[in-house]
Amino acid sequence: ALDNAEAAATAAAGTVFPLPNDWMFSQAAMTQALFLRVIKSYRARLRANNPRFPSLAACQAANPAEDCSKEVTATDVNWAKVVADAQGGITTDLTIITSTTTGPNMSWTNQWYSYGTWHQMTPFLFGMADKTGAYDAWIATPLSTRGAGPTPFFLQTDDQRFPQGASRAAQQADFTVGGAAGVATNPGCSVANTICKRYFRNRDGLDPAASPSWGASQYDHVRFFSWKNSGFGSGVTGQNGPFPFFTVAELNMLEAEGQIRLGNYPAAAALIDKTRSTCGYGSVPAGCTLRATGNGFSLTWAPVAGGSSVTAPIGGGLPPLSGVVADGTTPVPGGAACVPKVPSNASEVGGGTVACGNIFEAMKWEKRIEEAYTAFATWYFDSRRWGDLPLNTPVHWAPPYPDLQVRLRVGPQIYSVGGGTNPTGSAARSGYGW
Question: Stretch 402-409: mean pLDDT, rounded?
Answer without folding.
Answer: 92
